[in-house]
Amino acid sequence: MHHCFMAAALAFCIAAPAAAQRNLVIAAQTPPSALDPHFHNTTNNNMVLRQIFEALFELDNQARPQPRLAESLRLIDPLTWEVKLRRGVRFHDGTPFEAEDIAYTFARVPTVPNSPALFTPAVRTISAVEIKDPQTVILRTREPNPLMPIDLAAPAILSRKVHGPSPSTSDFNTGRLAIGTGPYRYAAWLPNERLEVTRNPEYWGPAEPWDRVTFRYIPQGGSRMAALLTGEADLIDYVPMQDMPRLERDPRFALFSVDSVTFVYLAPDAMRETTPFATDRQGRPLPRNPLADRRVREALSLAIPREAIAERLYHGQARAADQFAAPIAAHRLPDLPPLPHEPARARALLAEAGYPGGFRLTIHGPNGFFPGDDGLLQALAQSFTRIGIETSVETLPPATLFTRATNREFSLFMTYFSSYLTINPMRQVAMTRNPELGHGPFNRQRYSNPAMDAPLAEALTTMDPERREILTQQAAQALLEDKGVLPIIFLRNTWAARRDKVTYEPSPVNHTTALYARPVQ
């Protein structure tokens, strides 16, 4: 019970016996790689840092932009947008959020050193940020950008006063600059082990219910399960598939699942004349790169038993992929069957491409990055070996994998992408790399396909949604036919929680965050 008296426009509250602190412990699989919100555009960083920092908009679980530091966005003409800013917002140290912070933030985004993946695509089209008045910012663009409402939900806004002329990632990591406008404040961080945040009592929006939230980073599924079963954790993500039946039967726990926008794919080295991890049967380097031949890439795709993988390896927690876009993605190619599994045709294509006896291949992928990743790599290697490509597997920690992939050290590697749009994974992963335009920041194999690029470039500047859909589907069709990437499966996301303590709103983009966790009343 609280008894409050209004006096001189101030509320004086006499708290009845102090309510018990509401603490939440989340055991999560993947830690953030940094607390700098612009350092690495990846799910595990964004989901945690969006509790501390905020963008102008936030995409909700239906991919609709919701106002955060901006109240509205209006298209004035194809090259001009008006952003109305929220009044009265302060950073955690009390510094007011101001219009000047927008230009400051957008200027920093492309310049963060050593970033594995910048947020540059989100600001790539903005040529000028003009302050009309303290609450109104005009964004001018080099070209029409139909994705602007979604782009503005990407970069977290920093303060030019708080964060200064050249904030370093290490200053965020020590906590010194881990200061945002978000509903939670930074409290403590032990890299790869734990992160603690506390409720921001001055938050401009609805108050969060948790006083303190502790994220414990536990990469092993069995250990996260143990933390839940012993009561050390209230909520866990990436529930091990084999443990789901047991949790479903146990009345102490609740499961929260949703079809994700995450799809797993293989990236082949299709552009180089030679490739490091393909050899002849004796282990000698091949004079030419077999993956540069579309028939070989198609043979690899035909070798993969996607439906069996989804059913047996994933116990139904995945679906066979039909294309390079999530099942709920806007503008995906309609009515496609899952990609075919035809080993005999795969062997015929290999022979046609000049490899009747196959060759040797090493594939690379992450271990502990998404559920079943290690087992999936092994299943893929077995499938390739069955068609005559003798395949071995090397798994790596995600950070090492992406550094080496960015350096073009692999012939074929596995990873995933998450998006509510069909255009976005193509723009980020498969479009010819162009840092100035923000194209292809995740195109680690430097794939390039003019038949895909041309409609895609036009789609990225087409404000008419119907025309944009046609162009996007043309690009998607070109990518599918060329096998520039090999989609494998779509994942489901599942969390488990103590039923008496937490309910969770499952996130299609797989965000594990206190913002989706609510106490059981």
Automatic annotation (TrEMBL):
Compartments, record wording: Periplasm
Signal peptide: 1-20
Keyword Transport assigned: yes
Pfam families: SBP_bac_5 (PF00496)
Residue ranges constituting the Solute-binding protein family domain according to the UniProt record: 65-422
Keywords associated with the record: Signal, Transport
Similarity-based family: Belongs to the bacterial solute-binding protein 5 family.
Name of the molecule in the record: ABC transporter substrate-binding protein
